[in-house]
Amino acid sequence: MIKVGIVGGTGYTGVELLRILANHPQVKVEVITSRSEEGIAVADMFPNLRGHFDLAFTVPDVERLAQCDVVFFATPHGVAMSLAPELIARGVKVIDLGADFRIKDVAVWEDWYKMSHTCPDLVAQAVYGLPEVNREAIASAQLIACAGCYPTATQLGFLPLLEAGLVDHRRLIADCKSGVSGAGRGASVGSLLCESSESFKAYGVAGHRHLPEIRQGLSLAAGKPVGLTFVPHLTPMIRGIHATLYATLKDPVDQGLQTLFAERYAHEPFVDVMPAGSHPETRSVKGSNVCRISVHRPQNDDTVVVLSVIDNLVKGASGQAVQIMNLMFERPENEGLQQVALMP
Amino acid sequence: MIKVGIVGGTGYTGVELLRILANHPQVKVEVITSRSEEGIAVADMFPNLRGHFDLAFTVPDVERLAQCDVVFFATPHGVAMSLAPELIARGVKVIDLGADFRIKDVAVWEDWYKMSHTCPDLVAQAVYGLPEVNREAIASAQLIACAGCYPTATQLGFLPLLEAGLVDHRRLIADCKSGVSGAGRGASVGSLLCESSESFKAYGVAGHRHLPEIRQGLSLAAGKPVGLTFVPHLTPMIRGIHATLYATLKDPVDQGLQTLFAERYAHEPFVDVMPAGSHPETRSVKGSNVCRISVHRPQNDDTVVVLSVIDNLVKGASGQAVQIMNLMFERPENEGLQQVALMP
Amino acid sequence: MIKVGIVGGTGYTGVELLRILANHPQVKVEVITSRSEEGIAVADMFPNLRGHFDLAFTVPDVERLAQCDVVFFATPHGVAMSLAPELIARGVKVIDLGADFRIKDVAVWEDWYKMSHTCPDLVAQAVYGLPEVNREAIASAQLIACAGCYPTATQLGFLPLLEAGLVDHRRLIADCKSGVSGAGRGASVGSLLCESSESFKAYGVAGHRHLPEIRQGLSLAAGKPVGLTFVPHLTPMIRGIHATLYATLKDPVDQGLQTLFAERYAHEPFVDVMPAGSHPETRSVKGSNVCRISVHRPQNDDTVVVLSVIDNLVKGASGQAVQIMNLMFERPENEGLQQVALMP
Amino acid sequence: MIKVGIVGGTGYTGVELLRILANHPQVKVEVITSRSEEGIAVADMFPNLRGHFDLAFTVPDVERLAQCDVVFFATPHGVAMSLAPELIARGVKVIDLGADFRIKDVAVWEDWYKMSHTCPDLVAQAVYGLPEVNREAIASAQLIACAGCYPTATQLGFLPLLEAGLVDHRRLIADCKSGVSGAGRGASVGSLLCESSESFKAYGVAGHRHLPEIRQGLSLAAGKPVGLTFVPHLTPMIRGIHATLYATLKDPVDQGLQTLFAERYAHEPFVDVMPAGSHPETRSVKGSNVCRISVHRPQNDDTVVVLSVIDNLVKGASGQAVQIMNLMFERPENEGLQQVALMP
C-alpha cells in the first residue's frame, strides 16, 4: 500500500483527492492536515466522505508527513516550498498541486506570484506534471509540479499543432471558460451563488498567473517562444473547463488535422480525441480524469479551432495528481481513475 | 459474469445503469434496447461512456433478452408488463425500474396509471424492491418492482416511526423536493433550463402517482391504513430528492428518536443516519447510492421532522436496482456501488 | 419629491431599493451610507445602476439623514435601533427592513437575537409593515418594522384560514424554501455557488429567528396563540420564496376555500389569488412586488395546502418597503412598483 | 397611442415584448397571434403577465393585423416574409425580430436558411435594425430587419475598431457565449435543464446562421470584406450574451482605444463603454436594453480584446425592437426601456 499524506485538505482539490483515493485499491491516506480544522473529522466536514474515511485533520507536522511514501500539497502557492525541501531531503516523494514549482524561470515566478521563492534549486529539480508531455521524467521524479487547470486544457489542445509546426506560433489565442470551483473554497463575494450564477464574465484579461505557465509549455512544444493571448472567463457552473483555442495555419491547404490529433493521443489513456465535427461538453468529463478534444477548421479557412474540455478538479488537479502518483509508484496509470463522468 | 440486458437505454435511468455497471466487476451488459436509437452506439449518444462500452442500441427482441441472466426495464409504465411475462417464463430474472408491478391492488394501479394491467398475476408474484424492508424476499425473487424515487426517500424516513408505532398514522405529511431529472429525458417545455432553473414550484398537489405507492408501503409498516398528504416540488437542480417529513408524536415526552433511527438502520449499507441536529444536503449523495437521514423535534414540541435525501437516479432508481441485482445473484450488496458522492 | 436616505446600501436589500427607486417618479435618493465603502460610487459597485444614480456611499451621519423625509434601514439587526431614536425625535419617518422592531415582546426578541434592545419604547410605537394586515396604521405611522421575507409569504398564505377560524390553530406547518439571496451578500462558504448550487437542504430546523415573528402574526390573526412548525430550506436559485403551508380543517366538508381567499385579497394590489388547481412558480414574481397564492385540498381530505410565492428581495423586503413608503406619503400604493416579473 | 400587433406571441421574444410593452406609456397591444394557443389568455400562459394584459391569442389574421400601426414578428424565419408584403402594402409598419430580411444577398440567405425567399424585393427595401449604425434610416423606414442577438453584441464591439481602420480586417475572431434562452422556447432535449445546466459547450463551429449577418455588418463598417471566425457557445444560464472579440492592431503603438470607444458611443443611450480595465458581467444588463463594452490590450501586445455583453432577449431582440419602434414613431428613444437590470 502507498502511504499518502495530504497537506491542505479542506480546499476543493483536497476533498477531491480524498474522493478519488477512497476507491484506489493501493492507497492508504495516513495524514491530512489543516491548521484551521485541527481535530475535525474529514467526514464531518465533507459528509460525502462519511463511511469512507476515519481520519481527522491535524496541523502540518514534518515528522508525521515524512513517514508517508508521498505527500500531496493541495495548498495555495507559497506553502509547498516551505515544507517540500525537508520532505525531499528525507526521500519522500512530493506532488505539488499548487504553483510553487511550475515556472522554471524563478524571476518570472516571483514577478507573477508577488513573493520571493525560498528554494529555487528545487524548481530546477522539479518535473512538470503533465503526463502527456513527459511521462518518463515523471516516473523517475521525486518532486512534481502538477500542471494547472487552464494550462492542462490549453496545452493538450495546442500541442499537436505546435509540435508539428503547422501553425503561426506568434499569434495563439486561448479563450478559456472555467466553472466557479476554480476559484477555490475560500469565502469571497465574487464566488457567491448570487454573484456568479446566471451571469458570465471575463476576468484577469490584463494578465492571469496561468499565462506564463501556458506560454512556457507551448514554447517548449514549439521549440521557440510563442505569442499567446489568454482570456479566462467565469462560467455559472461548479466544475469544468472549456478551452476554445485559435491558431492560424501556415499552410492553408493542410487537411490532416483530425489524423494529427488522433495519432498524437492514440496511446493516451486520458485524452479522447472526438470524431470530426464534435463539440465536447464539459459535463461529459464531470468527475472523470478525461480530457476530450475536437479540432475544427471553420469554413475551410486558415484558422484552426480546437475545443478542449476537462474537469478542473480532476484532470485539472487531483485526478492528474493521482495519475502522476500511479506513474511514480509503477502502478497502472488508470488505477483508481476509471470513474465514468456523471451525466446528467 | 452476470449477463445483463437493459430495455429502454436512452432515458436517464438507463444511462445511469450503464454508468454504474461500467465499474461493476461481475457484470457484462449484453443487450441494450431502444426503438428510436436502433444502431446508434451508446457511447455516441452518451459521450461520458466513451471508452467504457462498445455496444449499440437494438430493438427489443425477446430472444436476445432471454439469453441474459437478468433484464432491467428502464422504461415508462406499460412497457415492462408487455415483455416481462415471457422473460419470466423462460427463467430470466426481471428488475423493473418502472411502475408496472409496484401497486398490489391492480384496480388502484389502473385508476392512477390510466391503463388496464395486462398481467395482474405477476403483480402478486412481484417483490417490492426496497432492500431495507424486504431484503430476504428480494434475494429469492424472480421479478422485482423497484421502489420509486419519492417512495424510497419517504419510506426510509417514516419507517422507524411507523414500525415503532410512535406517531399518529392518520396525519402524515411528506413535503418532497426533486431535481429536474426526475421528469426524465423527454423533451418537454416544463423541463427546459429556461423554464425550470431560477424557479421553484409545487406540482401534482391534487394527486401524484407516487402517492398510492408511498401509502401502500407506509400502511404495511404501520400495520394499518395511513393518512398521507404528499406534495412534490420541482427544484432547480439536476439530481437529488429531499423529503421533509412531518408526523405527530403520540407521546410528547418520548426522547429516543435518534437512537430509534440509528438502531433501525445500524446494519444497512446504504442508509446513513446522521448525528442529531444534522441537515443532510442532497449534494452529499450526488452520484452515490446512499440515503442520508436526520430526525428532529423542533422546540421539543410533538411534531417530528425527518429529513431524508437521496440521488433520485441512484438510490431512487438505478443504484437501488443494482443493489437488488447484487442480492438476487448473491453478490456483496455494495459491489459496484461504493462511489463517493461528487462534492462540490 | 420625497427625500430618501438609505442606511446600509451595500447589501442585497439596499441595491434592490435603489433598483426600484430608480424608476419611482416621486423619489430622490439623497443619502446612501456604508462604512466599508465610503466614497465609492454606487454605480461603480453595482454596474446595473450605471446611468441611474450619481451618488456615492457615505458614512452614516445623523445630521444628513435627518434632512431626509424618510430613512430606510437595510441593515443587520442592531443597527436601526441605534440610529432610529434620534431620527424619530427629529420627525423623520423610519422604515426598518431589518428585525429590530418586529417582535412586540422585547424579552422574546432579546432571546432570539442574542442582544439587549436599546429602545424598547420604540418597539411599542413601531407598526408592523405588512400592508395586507394593517394598511391604515402604516399610513399614519412614523416607524415601520417591515415584515420579514418568510413571514410575508407565510402570513399571507395562512391569514384567510386563521381569520375565518377554519383550521386547527394548534398545528400549523410552514415548509418554506428560499433562494440564496436570503442569506445576504456577506461572504460565507455556505453561500458559495459551489456549495449551494446543485443541492437542496433544510436549515435551522431547531429554530429560526423568523419563527417568533410568524407566530406573533398568526396568533394575532387567529385571536389566540398558534402552534407552528417552521422549516426553512435553502434552494439553488438567487431569488424567490415558496411557502408550502399545511393546516387541518376543523370542518372537513367545507368547500369555499377558493372563494375565501379570493375575497380576502380582492382589493389587494399585490396579492394574486390564482385559479383553483394552480401551482404558482417563484419565477412568476421574480423582480416584482406580487405575492401569488393558490389553495388546495388534496384528495378532498381535511388537510389544506396553501402555496404562496414571493420575491424575497421585493415583496419580501425592498418592494414591500416602497409600498409602505407610498402609503406613508399618500402616494398611489403601486407607484414605482408595476414592474413585470422577468420570465424566462 | 401606438396600436401594436404581435405575430408569434408564445416564444421568448414574444413574451419579452409583452413584458416591455406593459410599461410603455404610449402603446396599446391590440392583437397577439399564435396558431397553437388560439383562445388562450396570454396571462394564463405567462403568469408574470397576470394583471397586465387582458388579451388572448388569436390565429394570424391580416385584416386584424392591418388595423395596427405596427406589427412585430417574433417568429422563426419564413413567417414574416409570408405576411409582411400585404401589411406593407396596406401601410402598416413591420418590425421583424426574425431573420427574413437581414441578409441583403438573397442567394446567401437562401443558402444559409435552406429555403427560397418569397419576397426578395422587400429585402432591398428593409432597413437593418441596429440604431447605433443607421438610426436615421430606421426612423423613416417601413420595414425593419432587427439585428440578431449575436450580431448585436459582436458588431457593437467591433465597430469602433473597423470604422477607424485600426485593425487587420482579414482576421477577426468572435468567441461568443449565449444563455440557453437563445435557443428559444421549443421543447428540445438539448435545452433541458438536465442537458444544459452544469455544462458548457461550443456549437455550430462549422457554420452558424449569424455568421453571414455579422460578416455583412462588419464588412460595411470596414468598407471591405472582412475575414471572421465566429464560435458560439451554450452557457448554463437563462439570459445573456458575452462576446469576447479579438483583433490585431495594425499599429502596435496605438494607445487611444479607450477614447475611441468612449467617443464612438458618447451619445448612444443604450451603449455603455465601461472604464478601462473593466470586465462587464452579463447580469449587469439582465432585463435591460443596455450593451456594456470594455476594451483591453493584454500585455500591451498587438491583440485587442473587446468584451461586449447584452441581454439576448432585450438589446438582442425585443428591447431593440421597441427602441426601433420609438424611433419610427418619433417617441423618445428610451421610452419604456429604462428598467434597471435585475442584480442579483
Automatic annotation (TrEMBL), chains A, B, C, D:
Catalytic residues identified in the record: 149
Entry keyword annotation includes Oxidoreductase: yes
Domain Semialdehyde dehydrogenase NAD-binding: 3-141
Group of enzyme by EC: oxidoreductase
Annotated InterPro entries: AGPR, AGPR_AS, AGPR_dimerisation_dom, AGPR_type-1, NAD(P)-bd_dom_sf, Semialdehyde_DH_NAD-bd
UniProt main location, coarse: cytoplasm
A cellular component annotation (GO) from this entry: cytoplasm
Pathway(s) of this molecule: Amino-acid biosynthesis; L-arginine biosynthesis; N(2)-acetyl-L-ornithine from L-glutamate: step 3/4
Transmembrane segments: none
One record GO biological process: L-arginine biosynthetic process
UniProt keyword list: Amino-acid biosynthesis, Arginine biosynthesis, Cytoplasm, NADP, Oxidoreductase
GO molecular function, one term: NADP+ binding
Enzyme Commission number(s) from the entry: 1.2.1.38
Cellular localisation: Cytoplasm
Enzymatic reactions: N-acetyl-L-glutamate 5-semialdehyde + phosphate + NADP(+) = N-acetyl-L-glutamyl 5-phosphate + NADPH + H(+)
Entry function: Catalyzes the NADPH-dependent reduction of N-acetyl-5-glutamyl phosphate to yield N-acetyl-L-glutamate 5-semialdehyde.
Similarity-based family: Belongs to the NAGSA dehydrogenase family. Type 1 subfamily.
Protein name: N-acetyl-gamma-glutamyl-phosphate reductase
Species this protein is from: Nitrincola tapanii
Gene this chain is encoded by: argC
